[in-house]
Amino acid sequence: MRLPPAIIGLTEEVLREVLRFTGPADVTLSRYFRDHPKLGSRERGVIAEAVYGLLRNKLVYTSFAESGNGPTMRRMTLLGLADAVGADSLGGLSEDETEWLARVAEIDRRLLPAQMRANLPAWLYEKLVARDGEENTLQLADALNTPAPLDLRVNSLKAAREEVIATLAEAPILCEPTPYAPLGLRIIKKPSVQNLPLFKSGAIEVQDEGSQLLAQIVGAKRGEMVVDFCAGAGGKTLALGATMRNTGRLYAFDVSEKRLAKLKPRMARSGLSNIHPVLIAHENDAKVKRLAGKIDRVLVDAPCSGLGTLRRNPDVKWRQTPEAIIEMNAKQTAILSSAARLVKTGGRLVYGTCSLLDEENEAIATHFLATHEDFSLVPMKDVLAEQKIALEMDDYLKLTPHLHHTDGFFAAVFVRKPSSE
Ligand SMILES: C[S@@+](CC[C@H](N)C(=O)[O-])C[C@H]1O[C@@H](n2cnc3c(N)ncnc32)[C@H](O)[C@@H]1O
């Protein structure tokens, strides 16, 4: 069925707003939909898909849009919509526009300049090419510009992975076990899971496989004292709590009241009662100091550029700047250093990000080791062997969408040496 011609104007309107990059694209879209309550779910889906497609392919589409007659923004919108639903499904196109879309569809994108094909800003593209070479960067960019599948984590307190697979099949939702995370499921077609009884009962949570692995390498055990220092809405907190079998004490720190508030209903669904959310003013808050030297395991899932999550948040690559990343580096160093004080002798400290950049990853880990003689690195290959995760890594965990089909993640594991060492 053809879409009503009005969808073009509506998409163009919200696209203009999104491309101002004054806030995250998903927030702008939600606000737009709230302000336009008459839009049906199909229209909303199409508009969102068109906007996300445009953000993923912005460089290529801008160049195509500039090639035709008429306003560029309308042409960008048509490209996004044609990508989302196919040009044949669009009502209200002029003859000229129909022909132009057909011509553009014939262009061999392999002939475009490499940075344009990568659809990455120049500063990021150049940084990645300098490190990984052009071919690897193009492969990475291709994976980052492809929408992610939907990954779920089974809450082992409530169900076994096999049971969940069987229940989902009745829906019918087909999924497969994730290759590395023992409780993960991957759904290729993305159904809405929020209304499923499995979700409402807390048997499943939405969580990328990479994020599940980051929680797993903390190695939290029954009865331990654990801190999730940057808990946010608690994606990893919930995974840690289940690994601890709902025993011990798991502190969920964050500076954002709004994010911690989102953790509460998730805690209630999960059946976990070992989690203690704590709002802190900053990383040196007195609430942190009180626990110094008492904690078995600390996870620092640090605030970062988020460039590893472009499959889900394609606007991030256009909103990030090298200057913002330098500021972030200072924050990451400060948070890691403060969180380290919590770790008891022999305890584990994990630093993780969803960034692809060395300066947010290895550089922070190396600097930490150079300035904290009482900590040493636990090579990631040892941690993965301990956790029986079948991944080949050297010192650090480095997950990328083109190699591991997860979001981009980095992690380093440190241990606090016994004082005699
Ligand atoms: C990558 S996000 C965490 C995501 C979360 N762990 C999850 O799995 O869903 C980083 C978090 O760090 C928090 N944050 C920023 N500055 C902080 C600080 N100084 N101390 C603690 N948390 C901080 C942010 O509010 C944000 O929620």
From TrEMBL:
The keyword Transferase applies. The active site is at 354 (nucleophile). GO terms for molecular function: RNA binding; RNA methyltransferase activity. GO terms for biological process: RNA methylation. It is an enzyme of class 2 (transferase). S-adenosyl-L-methionine binds at residues 254, 301. Pfam families: Methyltr_RsmB-F, RsmF-B_ferredox. Residues 140-417 form the SAM-dependent MTase RsmB/NOP-type domain. Keywords: Methyltransferase, RNA-binding, S-adenosyl-L-methionine, Transferase. Its EC number is 2.1.1.176. Belongs to the class I-like SAM-binding methyltransferase superfamily. RsmB/NOP family. This is 16S rRNA (Cytosine967-C5)-methyltransferase. It comes from Glaciimonas immobilis.
